Amino acid sequence: MAARTVCQMLQRRLASSAAAARLSSAELRSHRSALFSKEQARQRALFPRTEKIEVTLRGPGLQGTLLVMNRGVSTPHSCTRHLTEWHVMSSALALVDGQPWHMHRPLTRSCDLTLLTFKDEDPQIVNQAYWRSCAALLGHVLDGAFKDEFSVELLKIPEVPVTAGAFCCDLVLDSRLDSWTPTEESLRSFTRDALQLVQKDLPWEPLDVSPSVALEIFSHSRCKQEEVEERAAQSQNGTVSLYRCGDHVTLSGGPLVSRTGLCSQYEVTCIHTVGESAWGVRRRAQGLSLPMNLTANHTVWRKLRKRAERLVEIPSSSTVTPPPPIAEAPPTAPPPLQ
C-alpha cells in the first residue's frame, strides 16, 4: 500500500513537469480556474432545494437583528445587502459562531454572524486576513508578470504578522533568470499591475476542496502538490482551502478579505534573494499596503516603505521542502518583464 502511494506521488510529479512544459503561464491559470469553476458548480449542486436558516446578527447597531437566509447559498455578503450600503462596502470578514468566515463563503446552518471592518475596536483578526490577502495579491501579480517562456513557481506564502512591516510572497524563477536583479522600474511595474487588480475590485472566491481535487488543480506544480498534502494533513476535516481572484487560484492557510478593492494604498517594495533551495534560487517579494479609510500621507508612507524594504526573516519551518528538481535550463538573463 505504501509503495503504491509513493508510486502515485512520483507519477503526479512527473506528470506535472510534463504539463508545465506544454502549457504557458496564461494557459495554466486558465486550466486551474476552469477546474475551480467545475468543483464550485458541483458543490453548489449539493443544495438543490431551498432550505431556510436563521442568521442572528451581532455587533454595534445590529445586536439581535434576525435574517432568514438560504442554506448553502446565502453568504455573509448576502446578509450585508439586507442592511446598508456601508455594511456592503466596509465588511471585510465575518465571524460565524465566533469563527473567522469569508464574506463569500456560503452559510450552511443557522448561526450568529458578526461583520468585521478595519474600524472595529479590535481589528486584529481582520488586519491579519488583510495582510494575508495582500500577499496573495502579490502572488497573483508575480504569477503573470514574466514572459510565458519563463517559469514562475510560487512557494508557500509565509504567514507573517502585520507588525513585521511588510507582507511576503516567496517564489522561484526560471533558472535562466538566476542573475536577474529587479530594478526600481520592475518594482513600479509590479505595483501598477497590483493597483489595476485593486481598481477592478475583484472578489476573492473561497472554496474548500478535497486533497484529490486540489492536486488536480495544481497538477502542473510539484511544489503546490506538496503544499496541498501538507495542508490536508494539518486540516481538522481533511480539506484544503482555495481562493480565486480573476483567473488566479491560490492556497491559503487562513481566510482572506472579501475583495481587492478594500486596498487603499499598495506598493511592491523589494525582492530579496534569500538563498538556494531544492527548487532553485529562492526570492522573497515584499510589499506594503493600507486598507480603505486608513491612508497615510507622503511622509508617513515613505517611512513605512523604507521599513518594508528590509528583509522579513521567516523561520525555515514555515516553508515547504521540495524534492530535487528534475532538470535545469542553461543560465542566461534576458529581460523578464512583459
TrEMBL record:
Single annotated GO MF: RNA binding
Subcellular location: Mitochondrion
Any Gene Ontology CC annotation: ribosome
Keywords: Mitochondrion, Ribonucleoprotein, Ribosomal protein
Compositionally biased region (Pro residues): 321-338
Xref: Gene3D superfamilies: 3.10.20.30, Threonyl-trna Synthetase, Chain A, domain 2
Region (Disordered): 313-338
Main location: mitochondrion
Highest taxon of the lineage: Eukaryota
Family recorded in the similarity comment: Belongs to the mitochondrion-specific ribosomal protein mL39 family.
Protein name: Large ribosomal subunit protein mL39
The organism's taxonomic lineage, starting at the top: Eukaryota, Metazoa, Chordata, Craniata, Vertebrata
